[in-house]
Amino acid sequence: MAASIAGVFEENLQKKILESKVLVVGAGGIGCEVLKNLVLSGFGDIEIIDLDTIDVSNLNRQFLFHKEHVGKSKAEVARKSALSFNPNVRIKSYHDSILSTDYGVGFYQRFNVVLNALDNRQARNHVNRMCLTANVPLIESGTAGYNGQIELIKKGLSQCYECKPKPTQKTFPGCTIRNTPSEPIHCIVWAKHLFNQLFGESNADEDVSPDTADPETAAEAGKEALATESNNKGNVERTSTRAWAQANNYDPEKIFNKLFNEDIKYLLSMETLWKTRTPPQPKLWGEFTEACVSENSVEANKSRDQKIWNIEECAKVFATSINFLKDEFIKLAEGDHLVWDKDDKHAMDFVAACANIRSKVFGISQKSRFEVKSMAGNIIPAIATTNAITAGIVVMHTFKVLQELYDQCQSVYIRLRLTGRNKLFDPDKVMIPPNPKCYVCSPKPEIVLKVDTKKMTVKSLRDDVLIKALNMVQPDVIIDGKGVIVISSEEGETEANDNILLKDIQIVDGCILKADDYFQNYELSITVIHKDVERDDAEMFEVVADPGLLKPEQQNLTAQSTSKNNVAERMETDGNNSDSDCCIEDEEIISILSSVVIPKKRKLSDEGPSEKRLKSNNEDDDLILVD
Ligand SMILES: Nc1ncnc2c1ncn2[C@@H]1O[C@H](COP(=O)(O)OP(=O)(O)OP(=O)(O)O)[C@@H](O)[C@H]1O
Ligand SMILES: [Zn+2]
């Protein structure tokens, strides 16, 4: 091993490497490379944590894993494989989520440095906070295709992971998805919503039926239908898609006709929508007039995944996948549901078929199953070389951190082509200091919460704002100056408040809340500003991370343009935007300039306690287009 071979490293560093204790978070694409580098560089004491098991799709790049390991714990197999390179290293593995409360500040304080090799913001945000609290240097890294990024997060010295709002990721208005799709991605998102409506965790925000409250139709469209059939949420008042499908025993033909004939006819009755658009063409089961692809054609010779299915093929796949998913679904316990996964054959077939049928109906170009999969899973192909280079730089940074040479630990960006500075590996010139207004690492973290206090409940304040948007784990909340305990992390203590509206518990415009997460050792001051939310599916709240930005525009011009330039300059890849390795994580809208705007909207991949997998709720999913 390098560190045990005299002369490879200078003596002082060699000693530090041998004596240090390192935590690796994530044993995926980057994590495997990092672990191998650590072991081969002579690190003597390593711990590694990963919540997942090995999937076949990991094998092409996560080289510590082989076919026989599929289904086994990533952390445990990574440990065993790495030990085969150097049995003298002490490696401890945890098959667990780093978000678990078992890993408190004391756990982190045992390490000299923490190396993140994660794929989602939720876990990254959390480790960031824990390392700040424990005052342990964190090396954050990520890749997206050929791009990679490595940065050191050191309390008081550098930006933290949450110092800067993350770049906006693309989402689509509900009415585009439900009424007027114009691109393949709109149909793919709709198909994923449909999967959830039929078999998954159904969610009102993901309704797939025509949206009669589409602002475009407000004047006159939908006419009698609107007046008679829609409720104030804009949804046609009828049994839920799932209840309807169940009542019809998930008959593929009936579901087909409802979705692609009746609902489309209904949409056509909303005439305003089609004044400037090509109207959709309803399709009936069995009326497939499209010619079959000739056996000798290029299309016919492509693999099932690569070719564009004609409508008849789509209908067959639609029926087969529905039948299979129905059988899976009815095996589940009452209240349990399926979870869409791009690597599940039938779930993927279902989405590919539905999306393509809908595309056909709306005259949108169709996509192969392969293309649908990458769009539906927000996949940027994982490039093993980028992971390897990134992991190499992570470990080089680790050497610097152990030597406390922090001034040599600037962020590094890996690019496919030479940057303006003629580099493929482009380091920042200086270490970017912490943002004094950061709502995580500043001395007095504060935010403004614009919220409809007449509509939001205390439970939603806890689950949607504090836990999902602000990434707390076990929040406690009191009203400042009044001492009213609104939310307690002690089980059951404030359960009675759950369904109370904020206004009814004295959380009104101008009120200040003190939120506190004991586990993360994090305190946050929240100034509440009431805003009326008109439509039920509109964003219920908005978090403004820098309260200063609420001041009149003129005063903020400088601050805003600086932050914009920073974002553009750094061309962030994964560290802030996507994720390690392969998938752009599922995040909600975050505006770059003025505020962090997080709509109250559930994620497709949210997994309730009933799911078998332990995965975090931010993973490769939904609504975001990778450009
Ligand atoms: N909260 C968490 N605790 C522990 N490990 C986590 C957590 N969240 C994500 N991870 C792990 O981080 C790793 C990230 O690796 P990577 O980006 O290569 O993802 P992957 O799941 O292996 O690949 P793909 O997403 O392409 O299937 C994964 O192994 C994942 O299980
Ligand atoms: Zn910060």
UniProtKB/TrEMBL annotation:
Matching PANTHER family, A to Z? SUMO-ACTIVATING ENZYME SUBUNIT 2 (PTHR10953:SF5), UBIQUITIN-ACTIVATING ENZYME E1 (PTHR10953)
One cellular-component annotation, GO: SUMO activating enzyme complex
Query: What's the source species for this entry?
Result: Pseudolycoriella hygida
Chief subcellular location: nucleus
- Gene3D superfamilies found in the cross-reference section: Ubiquitin activating enzymes (Uba3). Chain: B, domain 2 (1.10.10.520), Ubiquitin-activating enzyme E1, inactive adenylation domain, subdomain 1 (3.50.50.80), Ubiquitin-like 2 activating enzyme e1b. Chain: B, domain 3 (3.10.290.20)
Active site per the UniProt annotation: C175 (glycyl thioester intermediate)
Q: Where is the composition biased (Basic and acidic residues)?
A: 604-618
Q: Which residues bind ATP?
A: 26-31, 50, 58-61, 74, 97-98, 119-124
- Biological process terms in GO annotation: protein sumoylation
Return the Polar residues bias intervals.
553-566
Q: Which family does it belong to?
A: Belongs to the ubiquitin-activating E1 family.
The chain positions of domain Ubiquitin/SUMO-activating enzyme ubiquitin-like read 449-533
For this protein, the record's InterPro entries field holds: ThiF/MoeB/HesA, ThiF_NAD_FAD-bd, UAE_UbL_dom, Ub-E1_IAD_1, Ub_act_enz_dom_a_sf, Uba2, UBA_E1_SCCH, Ubiquitin-activating_enz
Listed name of the protein: SUMO-activating enzyme subunit
Q: How does it assemble?
A: Heterodimer.
Pfam families with a match to the protein in the record? ThiF (PF00899), UAE_UbL (PF14732), UBA_E1_SCCH (PF10585)
MF annotations from Gene Ontology:
ATP binding; metal ion binding; SUMO activating enzyme activity; transferase activity
What's the domain of life for this entry? Eukaryota
Where are the stretches annotated Disordered? 204-239, 553-582, 601-627
Q: Show where the THIF-type NAD/FAD binding fold domain sits.
A: 8-405
Task: List where in the cell it is found.
Answer: Nucleus
Its keywords, alphabetically, are: ATP-binding, Metal-binding, Nucleotide-binding, Nucleus, Transferase, Ubl conjugation pathway, Zinc
Every Ubiquitin-activating enzyme SCCH domain range? 312-373
Question: Which positions in this protein are listed as binding Zn(2+)?
Answer: C160, C163, C438, C441
- Pathway given in the UniProt record: Protein modification; protein sumoylation
